[in-house]
UniProtKB/TrEMBL annotation:
Residues 109-215 form the Methyltransferase small domain. Keywords: Methyltransferase, S-adenosyl-L-methionine, Transferase. It comes from Bacillus solimangrovi. Methylates the class 1 translation termination release factors RF1/PrfA and RF2/PrfB on the glutamine residue of the universally conserved GGQ motif. The gene is prmC. CDD domains: AdoMet_MTases. GO terms for molecular function: nucleic acid binding; peptide chain release factor N(5)-glutamine methyltransferase activity. This is Release factor glutamine methyltransferase. Its EC number is 2.1.1.297. GO terms for biological process: methylation. Pfam families: MTS, PrmC_N. Residues 10-78 form the Release factor glutamine methyltransferase N-terminal domain. PROSITE patterns: N6_MTASE (PS00092).
Length: 287
């Protein structure tokens, strides 16, 4: 597609219209334009009537066309903001969602205030957003992170290094790497794949065709990963421990049952996200 713009606002108007006509969110035009011009949103609005750099016209048009074709904006820009920090992402990892910020906030406010040097593990770390954020937000925490995908771990390690977070990374299935080395923890956090297999195909093409299936599909009923993690918990948690899961809407009752079967004395809370959907399960365990 050959296009020409003389002003910044002309590029934004064209991209917004083209995206909407193609069934995409017009807001993506602002994100892509800021990325390509190196502006913040405020800078973009202040420079709307400035000349558009002609050497960047083709690059910007290509960015917009890629998004129309199904590539997520975050895979085009190579990053996503999470908890006030910029995380590198690519198609080896799930794109961070705002709901996971709520999970972290819920964990932090429930952490015991009388225990120093908490040992925390992020199970299924993906891009490392949970592990890195907990390391930087919780003073003196010892944080580990596990993922089955070596490609995802490379992204997570890069993020940890760039953001100055000291995280111990393990490759393997759920808590198995910690079990193998005899490591025990006080806090387990996980945002595992929780979409039922049949429902994956109903997702937007930007999600189902671009983000890793390994990070989306949670088995036949969406609960397979929770069952595996909970079954391994007794081998890694201390005498008492705190567990936090992100869940899909409507999965709270089932996960409560899974946890209660393994830990009959657990104190379990089901929390809703800002949109009023079940999104988090917190459990205080007595092993």
């Amino acid at each position: 597609m050959t296009k020409s713009f003389s002003k910044v606002y002309e590029a934004l108007n064209w991209a917004s219209s083209f995206l909407k006509e193609s069934g995409r969110e017009g807001e993506a035009a602002t994100v892509l334009l800021c990325y390509r011009l190196g502006f913040t949103r405020s800078e973009l609005y202040l420079n709307m009537r400035e000349s558009f750099p002609q050497e960047k016209v083709e690059l910007f048009v290509t960015d917009v066309e890629r998004h129309v074709s199904g590539t997520p904006v975050q895979y085009i820009t190579g990053f996503e903001e999470f908890y006030g920090r910029k995380f590198q992402v690519n198609n080896d990892v799930l794109i961070p969602r705002p709901e996971t910020e709520e999970l972290i906030e819920g964990v932090i406010k429930r952490l015991p205030s009388n225990k120093d040097h908490l040992r925390i593990v992020d199970v299924g770390t993906g891009s490392g957003i949970i592990a890195v954020t907990m390391t930087l937000e919780v003073e003196e925490a010892e944080v580990s992170a596990v993922d089955l995908s070596p490609k995802a771990l490379r992204v997570a390690k890069d993020n940890a290094q760039k953001l100055g977070a000291n995280v111990d990374f393990y490759e393997g299935s759920f808590l198995e790497p910690l079990i193998k080395v005899g490591k025990h923890v006080d806090v387990v956090i996980s945002n595992p794949p929780y979409i039922p297999r049949a429902e994956v195909e109903t997702l937007s093409d930007i999600v189902k065709d671009q983000e890793p299936r390994l990070a989306l599909e949670g088995g036949e009923d969406g609960l397979s990963c929770y069952r595996d993690i909970v079954s391994q918990l007794p081998q890694v948690v201390a005498s008492s421990a705190f567990v936090a899961f992100e869940i899909g809407s409507g999965q709270g009752k089932d996960l409560r049952s899974i946890i209660s079967s393994a830990f009959p004395n657990a104190k379990i809370e089901i929390e809703f996200d800002i949109n009023g959907k079940e999104r988090m399960v917190f459990a205080l365990l007595n092993n």
